[in-house]
Design brief:
The structure is a homodimer of 379-residue chains. Chain A has 379 residues and is α+β, with helices and mostly antiparallel strands. Helices cover 31% and strands 26% of the residues of chain A. In chain A, the strands form three sheets. In chain A, strands 9, 10, 11, 12, 13, 14, 15, 16 and 17 form a nine-stranded antiparallel beta sheet that branches. In chain A, helix 1 packs across helix 10 and helix 6 runs antiparallel to helix 7. The longest helix of chain A is centred in the middle third of the chain and has 18 residues. Chain A starts with a strand and ends in a 12-residue tail after the last helix.
């Protein structure tokens, strides 16, 4: 039995993949209607930060893994010492703390932006004195999909924003000159074997991933650099299962933006686009089974997220999207909310442009909104 | 809600595919441990031939479909007249009766072997007088995976076998000169659109499908013939969802062997090997949604069934099978029994030989038995 803490779309797609291997899954959900509940073998309702609920949940699990990082690392470390197999480990999960992540990556010599970890506005001002305004501030924990990220233009904004965070730790960095964002997924097993997925370019808007395109069309030298860095980080921190490493491409080369120690939105394309999906490889990795082939199953693969529309939006048109040849629709069965990730659409093609056009056409048919006009980043 | 009568591996893989489209599934199972129960949204335990259980099950289903054909057609026809959407229809499901199938296909001019429908040994003897011994006898209902199929060499065997069938209807046909067996899957929706999968060659042993290879390497004229016949049968009988049409290739051309009005073992390769799997297209078809692209996702795709071994066989080695690069393992979580279909392994490749070698290598690793020595049929 694989226990998954959390029952969102990542747990849903992991449980769906586990069915093929006859691996039973149990999810720790907030509500019985959470996305993963229909796909999992068993469901428990509870708060992962309630020690008693967590203890109950992990009992009988051969291995425990995660759909999200909102779990107290101390609590996890404790159940680990009690002999529960937590994969990735509590120590790896700690890397979802952006401050810890930056400090550790810098200490190991991985390329990160200039940064500081601060709790007061005056520290932000001091950072700006050295690096200039604007300053990008990210809460160390609790942020996702653009939440908890602030662009501070001046001292007043720093005072207002940091003051509002009531002493929470914040990572500050300069506004970088970013020409593209890419992500590398590494699957790894405890015995040390790892497998790296082809790099994807991610297209973001307001901090939310809108689309991914595989393979990323970036300079081969940068590609090799990023791949080596991602693999080296996975080994250095001892990741198990999937580790997503997001990079910025800047005039100074590739810079690590962020890690996510779990299946990741930037890897949803692998369900149809890679020989083995990130979800199956996460299951294989945490069970210490041989990892599957991570190569592309098509020349190019594009993924477009389905985001919740305005309350006035017309009902979604699933048959409309399915009428687009080659479009694969994945719905998470989540209540809608503007901007919320409700599903994704993947399409393969002979090249990136065709694949992206197919995915966007299906998305436009699904939501009834005009097709995205963003263009493929080009190097 | 899609209701699936039966909860075997076909229902399991259909429910697994339905998760992506956020389509809820409910299965009518014999036991809560049946293969599909972990993948379905809801489970009811009951006998589909118990009118009360069937009535309870279909309540609240938008559409009802099948994992197997062991349902009383009269009962189905009755719930249909009560307004339940049964897809494929009771009339189509009736084609799983081999006698009905042969009579109807012959009446519509489709190529079938010489045949008769008999209940007595003396009728078999009369058939042999016209067509010579041996005679192949197949029970009209209740046979699968080689059960209910008998090769009768002479009058004594006919008397013994037919006598033992206590008046059940039997289809008799001559022993044909079969150079290969192929299968064509047609997906169809009520509005009439259909999509045909690339033809596969099936490798059988003792009436059990051991392997499939796509695309089948047969003469293009025969391929076109078989494809047209399959599509025409689907339209003639009004199939909805997947219809599998199995053909014999004989010196007289292609001959229809058998129909199966549901996802079929000869289409398991489509999960990884086609752009849209037979399971997703079955769901789309019965919901009258646009059908997905049925083309190959790789140059060649091979599937090998995992059959239960002897009681003395060593435990299955899933990690061993997963160590074969590109092997996709699907386990059905069924109790083992010699010869029982417990799962399947799919592998893609640059050509049929490589794909088949990969699938066989993984199967041999899984079961610990020597690799199959059968060779690819070659035209």
């Amino acid at each position: 039995m694989v226990g998954i803490i959390g029952a969102g779309q990542l747990a849903r797609m992991t449980a769906q993949a586990a069915i093929s291997l006859a691996v039973d899954t149990k999810v720790l959900a907030v509500l019985p209607t959470d996305p993963a509940c229909v796909a999992a073998t068993a469901v428990e309702i509870g708060d992962p930060n309630d020690p008693a609920a967590l203890q109950r949940f992990v009992a009988g699990c051969d291995v425990v893994t995660f759909d999200h990082e909102r779990v107290d690392p101390t609590l996890l470390a404790r159940i680990e010492t009690e002999g529960v197999r937590v994969r990735p480990s509590a120590a790896v999960l700690h890397f979802s703390d952006k401050a810890h992540q930056r400090v550790e990556l810098a200490a190991h010599g991985f390329p990160v932006p200039p940064f500081d970890v601060v709790t007061t506005a005056s520290e932000v001002v001091a950072f700006a004195a050295a690096h200039d305004w604007p300053v990008v501030a990210k809460t160390a924990v609790g942020g996702y999909d653009g939440r908890g990220v602030f662009v501070l233009e001046n001292r007043d904004q720093a005072v207002a924003t940091i003051g509002g965070l009531a002493g929470r730790r914040v990572v500050v960095e300069p506004m970088l000159d970013i020409s593209a964002e890419i992500a590398v997924l590494v699957a790894r097993r405890p015995s040390g074997d790892s497998a790296v997925y082809p790099m994807v370019e991610t297209i973001q808007h307001d901090g939310i991933c809108l689309e991914t395109i595989a393979p990323a069309t970036i300079d081969p030298d940068l590609r090799t650099q990023a791949r080596n860095i991602a693999e080296s980080i996975a080994e250095t921190i001892g990741s198990v299962g999937i580790l997503a490493v997001e990079f910025f491409i800047t005039p100074d080369g590739v810079i690590v933006n962020e890690l996510a120690p779990r299946p990741h939105n930037s890897g949803h394309w692998t369900i149809e686009g890679a020989i083995t999906s990130q979800f199956e490889n996460h299951v294989r990795g945490i069970l210490d089974w041989p990892l599957g082939d991570t190569s592309l199953a098509a020349p190019a693969v594009a993924m477009a997220n389905i985001l919740g529309g305005a309350p006035s939006a017309r009902p979604d048109d699933l048959p409309g999207a399915l009428s687009v040849s080659g479009a694969h629709v994945h719905l998470y069965a989540k209540p809608t909310r503007p901007g919320r990730k409700l599903g994704h659409i993947t399409a393969t093609g002979p090249d990136q442009t065709v694949a992206l056009h197919r995915a966007r056409t299906a998305l436009a048919a699904f939501t009834g909104t005009p097709m995205s006009k963003g263009t493929l980043h080009d190097h």
